[in-house]
Every structure is written in C-alpha cells, then in structure tokens.
Specification:
There is one protein chain. This protein is α/β, with parallel strands linked by helices. It has one domain (3-207): Ribonuclease Z/Hydroxyacylglutathione hydrolase-like (Metallo-beta-lactamase, Chain A). The protein has helices at residues 36-48, 63-66, 69-76, 87-91, 93-99, 171-182, 201-207; strands at residues 3-9, 14-20, 25-29, 52-57, 80-82, 112-113, 119-122, 125-131, 140-144, 149-153, 156-157, 160-161, 190-193, 199-200. The longest helix has 13 residues, at 36-48. The N and C termini lie far apart (33 Å). The relative contact order is 0.14.
C-alpha cells in the first residue's frame, strides 16, 4: 500500500507530496519548499519516517512546483524528472521567480524525461503515467488503480481546473485531458491536486462547473 503525505509550501500554497510504501523507499513530487523552515519540515519528515528517497518527480515545472529542486539535489543528490515539454519553465525559473518577487535558487536541469505510459517504481510500488497537457504543455498525472488515487498537479482541483492563461497554457486541451485521460480512470479515484484539498473524479464529474 502506498502512503501519501503532503506539505503546503510557499506563497502559492503549493502541495508537495511524499509517497512511500512498506519498504521505506519514497519519492518526492513537486517540491515547493523555498526557505529554511520548509526545507527542514521536508527533511525532518523523511528522517523521522526513516525513508529512503529514490526519485524527484515533477507533475509540471511551473515556478511554485520546482522551488525546492535545488534543495533536494543538494541534500539527496537527486535531479528532477519531468516531461520534456516543460523544460522551458525550468530554464525560465529565475526570471519567473523574479517576476513574482520570489527569491529562489535556480533549479538544476532534469536528468531524465517522463512520458505517457512510463512506470514510476519505488519499493514494491508503481505509478502509471498519463500526459495531461493544458495547464502546461508537459503536465503529467500519476495514478495507481489498486490504491485508487491520482497525483494530478494543477490539472484538476476541487470544484475547479488549472489555469490556462499562463504561458503555453490551452483551455480546450486541458478540458480534453481531464475528460479523456482522468475521467476514464473511474469515479472512485481520489485526486490529490497541486493546490487545495483532495477531491474525487466522481465529484468533479458531477459538480465541477468547468466540466458539466
């Protein structure tokens, strides 16, 4: 069984996820930690749970989801893994942060790219990968049918959807991603988003004003 814990970090209130199983191997998704206190919270959790960090995974590379990449690399020696279509945002990390008035350390460049159909392995566990563009061109979502959850980044929120007015966003593409990639996974699937509280496919299918 996969355990999921998330922290809410930074001025954008971004959700950073740690996933692990009975082997204690774990992965981090979307590290938004951006100061000494947040860095300590993340590392203290990993230490207290006696976790073995194996991979640094990004659902997408917007500034609020990559601010902790440098800390994770410096502390654990892990480079980010991301869809190739979002490398643009890593290259623009410092410029984007400056635009928002945020002080950051430049994210290291990815060591590998993740594509639809890839299997993310840690311990005895796996996540399946879907390419779900629209919020960003390289947005990817990770799911596990056995444990009934999706880590979807900023694709789908409780009662809302990801912004498409940011550079390289596209509204119609996002709606298509949600309806054609996420909805078929089943109403029972719990959705862990990049911001806010978890939701479910069933709730969003019937209540989300952007999708009905």
């Amino acid at each position: 069984m996969i355990n999921i814990h998330y922290f809410t970090f930074g001025p954008f209130q971004e959700n950073t996820y740690v996933l692990w199983d009975e082997t204690k191997e774990c992965i981090i998704l979307d590290p938004g930690n951006n100061n000494t206190s947040e860095n300590k919270k993340l590392s203290d959790f990993i230490t207290e749970k006696q976790l073995i960090l194996k991979r640094l995974i990004l659902t997408h590379a917007h500034v609020d989801h990559i601010n902790g990449n440098k800390y994770v690399f410096d502390t654990y020696g892990l480079l980010p893994e991301v869809h190739k279509d979002d490398v643009y945002f890593i290259e623009k990390h410092l410029a984007t942060a400056t635009m928002y008035g945020i002080s950051v350390e430049q994210s290291p460049m990815p060591k590998a790219f993740i594509n639809e159909g890839d299997i993310i392995k840690f311990g005895n566990s796996t996540l399946n990968t879907l390419h779900t563009p629209g919020h960003s061109p390289g947005s990817i979502s990770f799911y596990n049918l056995e444990d009934k959850f999706i880590i979807g980044g900023d694709v789908l929120f409780y009662g809302s959807i990801g912004r498409t007015d940011l550079p390289l966003g596209h509204h119609e593409t996002l709606i298509k991603s949600i309806k054609e990639k996420l909805f078929p996974l089943g109403d029972y699937m719990k959705v862990y988003s990049g911001h806010g509280v978890p939701t479910s496919i069933g709730f969003e299918r019937t209540h989300n004003p952007f999708l009905i």
